[in-house]
Write a structure and sequence with these properties.
Length: 155
Amino acid sequence: MITRREMNTALVAAVAGFLTSGADAFAGAQAPEQRESGHGQTHMRGPSPVKTLMQEPLGDIPNPEVSVITLTVAPGAVSPAHEHIGPVFAYILEGEIENQVEPNPPKTYKPGDYFYEPAMHVHKMLKNLSKTKPAKLLIFQVAEKGKQFTVGVKS
């Protein structure tokens, strides 16, 4: 029986491998090299196309739900300060952004970069550095099912 942690790790690794290798390379690497074990599971022979980009604990979230979304940030846009009730895993698909989550200083991210945002840390800002092109992020977020994910910062 597969545990929730093993399932989450496999999901993140598969998507990360897909994003870093490209859809065609990932599919091509799997097809000829797969074999089925006696337990109905598929295993790969040879080098794995999967590369772990980051791995962080999910924390103790009752009734957890994972959402995978794309976020498009308009040219020059800056998000207001906020918090998330669960962890955020982000991968930059397009554009260049500046991001700051307390207690860290602002950092610039480009396509292929990624960051982790722990639950209930103040997300001070996310800014698209381009004045002409949108930025696009792939985001995995974990929250309690049925609860609002983003909350304003209390002054």
